[in-house]
Amino acid sequence: MTATGPPPRPAADVVVQASGVDKEFPASGHGGRVVALQGIDLAIRRGEFVTLIGPSGCGKSTLLRLIGDLTGPTRGTVTVNGKPAHEARLGREYGMVFQAPVLFDWRTVERNVELPLEVMRRPRAERQARARELLALVELSEFGRHRPWQLSGGMQQRVAIARALALDPAILLMDEPFGALDEMTRERMNLELLRIWERTGTTVVFVTHSIPEAVFLSTRVVVMSARPGRITDVIEIDLPRGRSVETREVERYFELVTEVRESLRAEEREHAVGPAAGERARLEGLPA
After folding, report:
1. Radius of gyration of the chain (CA)
2. pLDDT tens, position by position, 117-166
3. For residue 54, how far is the Cα from the chain centroid?
4. Going by C-beta distance under 8 Å and a sequence separation of 6 or more, which residues neighbour residue 246?
5. pTM, to two decimals
6. Chain-centroid distance, C-alpha 219
7. pLDDT (tens digit per residue) in 28-81
8. CA 288 to chain centre
9. I need a surface site. Which of 83, 112, 115, 231 has the fewest CB within 10 A?
10. Taking CA 220 as the corner, what is the angle to CA 6 and CA 74, rounded to the nearest 5 degrees?
């Protein structure tokens, strides 16, 4: 277990690079600042499935939004394919999926998937062919003429994934996309996502609160501290590809779940003990 991960790969293999990233937000009243992220250094390689996990409010979603250029760093840099994140966003190099699918009920499923291509003014025949291809990928071909409200929650999320892949993005950013689903649907969606990831080769950055989900899906799990969010550990998930429901029953899976859980607990203990120790030292006139 190491906070730096495996040996560095060639720069051309790195899709996302965050270097010395801090993120602060204005605090309400008195001109204060809230430090959301501090000292983030992270490299994500092409074709990886990297999951961010940590306590609520640790900055997982903020880091994802920095990668996607939905907000900017206060200090440090974020590059995607060797260029600033802003340029990558303008180049449509991202696909984004959030907890709520955000589909348009007045458009058919097929036309929801077409939307990014429509925005880019791609020809109608191209849009339709790509939408049909993606609906086949997420196994919803027969629902192209349906409206989103006619689909289950899991099916709607599959439509959202298809739409996010419409422009063949280099990176798929996913912020707790299955958090609102029931457990059985969530497990099926995990399998669907792995199948799509293995077929497309897209680099995935995923946020979740679920340790079992993180282990089952990922090639690496990035453990973050309570605010200010820091990367405290990066755990390699050495489960073989082609994962299935049986993967959740093998001994190595349980060992990795325990490893991630213990890493989170160690960070929580340090976070709880640290401030208390500092306060005692202050009261006793000792160096903290």
Report:
1. 20
2. 999 999 999 999 999 999 999 999 999 999 999 999 999 999 999 999 99
3. 12
4. none
5. 0.86
6. 12
7. 766 678 899 999 999 999 999 999 999 988 999 999 999 999 999 999 999 999
8. 36
9. 83
10. 90
Residue type, 262: E
Q: Which two tokens stand for residue 22?
A: 């801090």
Q: Which two three-digit tokens encode residue 97?
A: 């999926």
For 18, the token pair is 């965050």
Q: DSSP letters of 210-259?
A: -HHHHHHH-SEEEEEPSSSB-EEEEEE----SS--GGGGGSHHHHHHHHH
Report residue 96 as tokens. Answer: 């984004």
List Cα–Cα distances, 9 to 43, 95, 142, 236, 278, in angstroms. 9, 24, 42, 15, 39
Rounded to whole angstroms, the Cα distance separating 226 from 193 reads: 28
Instruction: Please report, as a single letter, which amino acid is at residue 30.
Output: H
Beta bridge partners of 124: none
In whole angstroms, give the CA distance from residue 7 to residue 2: 11
**How much is the mean pLDDT over the chain?**
88
